[in-house]
Fold this sequence. Notes:
single chain
Amino acid sequence: MDAIKQTRDKVRYSDSELAMFKVLIEKKLARAKEQLNYFQSQMDDFIDNPDTKMKGLSDAAGIAENEILGNSTERLSKHVTHLENALFRIENKTYGICRVTGELIDKKRLQAVPHATLSMEAKLGRKK
Protein backbone atom coordinates (compact mmCIF):
# COMPACT_ATOMS: atom_id res chain seq x y z
CA MET A 1 0.00 0.00 0.00
CA ASP A 2 2.86 2.44 0.81
CA ALA A 3 4.42 1.79 -2.61
CA ILE A 4 1.15 2.77 -4.31
CA LYS A 5 0.90 5.95 -2.21
CA GLN A 6 4.50 6.90 -3.01
CA THR A 7 3.90 6.36 -6.71
CA ARG A 8 0.72 8.44 -6.64
CA ASP A 9 2.45 11.24 -4.73
CA LYS A 10 5.06 11.42 -7.50
CA VAL A 11 2.44 11.47 -10.24
CA ARG A 12 1.37 15.09 -9.89
CA TYR A 13 2.53 18.54 -10.86
CA SER A 14 4.70 20.47 -8.42
CA ASP A 15 3.25 23.26 -6.31
CA SER A 16 4.92 25.87 -8.52
CA GLU A 17 3.46 24.27 -11.66
CA LEU A 18 0.03 24.14 -10.02
CA ALA A 19 0.37 27.83 -9.14
CA MET A 20 1.15 28.61 -12.78
CA PHE A 21 -1.93 26.67 -13.93
CA LYS A 22 -4.02 28.41 -11.26
CA VAL A 23 -3.10 31.84 -12.66
CA LEU A 24 -3.96 30.67 -16.18
CA ILE A 25 -7.30 29.24 -15.09
CA GLU A 26 -8.21 32.29 -13.00
CA LYS A 27 -7.63 34.55 -16.03
CA LYS A 28 -9.76 32.31 -18.26
CA LEU A 29 -12.42 32.10 -15.56
CA ALA A 30 -12.60 35.88 -15.19
CA ARG A 31 -13.04 36.29 -18.96
CA ALA A 32 -15.63 33.54 -19.14
CA LYS A 33 -17.64 35.02 -16.26
CA GLU A 34 -17.50 38.43 -17.90
CA GLN A 35 -18.82 36.97 -21.16
CA LEU A 36 -21.46 34.96 -19.30
CA ASN A 37 -22.70 38.07 -17.49
CA TYR A 38 -22.90 39.89 -20.83
CA PHE A 39 -24.91 37.11 -22.46
CA GLN A 40 -27.20 36.83 -19.44
CA SER A 41 -27.85 40.58 -19.51
CA GLN A 42 -28.60 40.34 -23.24
CA MET A 43 -31.09 37.57 -22.54
CA ASP A 44 -32.69 39.61 -19.77
CA ASP A 45 -32.95 42.61 -22.11
CA PHE A 46 -34.45 40.40 -24.81
CA ILE A 47 -37.06 39.01 -22.43
CA ASP A 48 -37.87 42.34 -20.72
CA ASN A 49 -38.07 44.46 -23.87
CA PRO A 50 -41.67 44.59 -25.18
CA ASP A 51 -40.39 45.27 -28.71
CA THR A 52 -38.62 41.91 -28.80
CA LYS A 53 -41.51 39.78 -27.57
CA MET A 54 -42.33 37.02 -30.01
CA LYS A 55 -45.00 38.03 -32.48
CA GLY A 56 -45.93 34.62 -33.77
CA LEU A 57 -43.86 32.82 -36.35
CA SER A 58 -43.23 36.00 -38.36
CA ASP A 59 -40.42 36.90 -35.96
CA ALA A 60 -38.15 34.01 -36.96
CA ALA A 61 -35.01 36.15 -36.75
CA GLY A 62 -35.81 37.10 -33.15
CA ILE A 63 -36.47 33.50 -32.24
CA ALA A 64 -33.20 32.37 -33.84
CA GLU A 65 -31.26 35.14 -32.08
CA ASN A 66 -32.78 34.19 -28.73
CA GLU A 67 -31.90 30.53 -29.33
CA ILE A 68 -28.30 31.39 -30.21
CA LEU A 69 -28.06 33.58 -27.12
CA GLY A 70 -29.49 30.79 -24.95
CA ASN A 71 -27.09 28.20 -26.38
CA SER A 72 -24.11 30.53 -25.90
CA THR A 73 -25.14 31.22 -22.31
CA GLU A 74 -25.51 27.51 -21.56
CA ARG A 75 -22.14 26.68 -23.14
CA LEU A 76 -20.38 29.46 -21.22
CA SER A 77 -22.04 28.39 -17.99
CA LYS A 78 -20.69 24.85 -18.44
CA HIS A 79 -17.24 26.28 -19.27
CA VAL A 80 -17.27 28.34 -16.05
CA THR A 81 -18.19 25.22 -14.07
CA HIS A 82 -15.36 23.23 -15.68
CA LEU A 83 -12.85 25.98 -14.86
CA GLU A 84 -14.09 26.21 -11.25
CA ASN A 85 -13.75 22.42 -10.95
CA ALA A 86 -10.18 22.69 -12.27
CA LEU A 87 -9.38 25.21 -9.51
CA PHE A 88 -10.84 22.77 -6.99
CA ARG A 89 -8.57 20.01 -8.35
CA ILE A 90 -5.58 22.34 -7.99
CA GLU A 91 -6.46 22.91 -4.32
CA ASN A 92 -6.71 19.12 -3.87
CA LYS A 93 -3.46 18.61 -5.78
CA THR A 94 -5.15 16.25 -8.23
CA TYR A 95 -5.03 18.71 -11.12
CA GLY A 96 -3.51 17.41 -14.34
CA ILE A 97 -3.96 13.74 -13.55
CA CYS A 98 -5.88 11.82 -16.22
CA ARG A 99 -9.04 10.35 -14.73
CA VAL A 100 -8.69 7.26 -16.96
CA THR A 101 -4.99 6.42 -16.98
CA GLY A 102 -3.94 8.06 -13.70
CA GLU A 103 -0.93 9.57 -15.47
CA LEU A 104 -0.07 13.23 -15.90
CA ILE A 105 -1.80 15.08 -18.70
CA ASP A 106 0.74 16.75 -20.99
CA LYS A 107 1.52 20.32 -19.95
CA LYS A 108 0.89 21.66 -23.45
CA ARG A 109 -2.59 20.13 -23.44
CA LEU A 110 -3.36 21.72 -20.08
CA GLN A 111 -2.13 25.09 -21.30
CA ALA A 112 -4.48 24.85 -24.28
CA VAL A 113 -7.40 23.27 -22.38
CA PRO A 114 -6.75 23.97 -18.70
CA HIS A 115 -9.91 22.20 -17.55
CA ALA A 116 -8.99 18.92 -19.30
CA THR A 117 -9.38 15.76 -17.23
CA LEU A 118 -8.23 13.30 -19.90
CA SER A 119 -4.87 12.80 -21.52
CA MET A 120 -4.90 12.72 -25.32
CA GLU A 121 -4.33 8.96 -25.20
CA ALA A 122 -7.42 8.48 -23.03
CA LYS A 123 -9.47 10.95 -25.05
CA LEU A 124 -8.64 9.10 -28.26
CA GLY A 125 -9.21 5.72 -26.59
CA ARG A 126 -5.62 4.57 -26.87
CA LYS A 127 -3.58 2.87 -24.18
CA LYS A 128 -0.11 4.04 -23.44
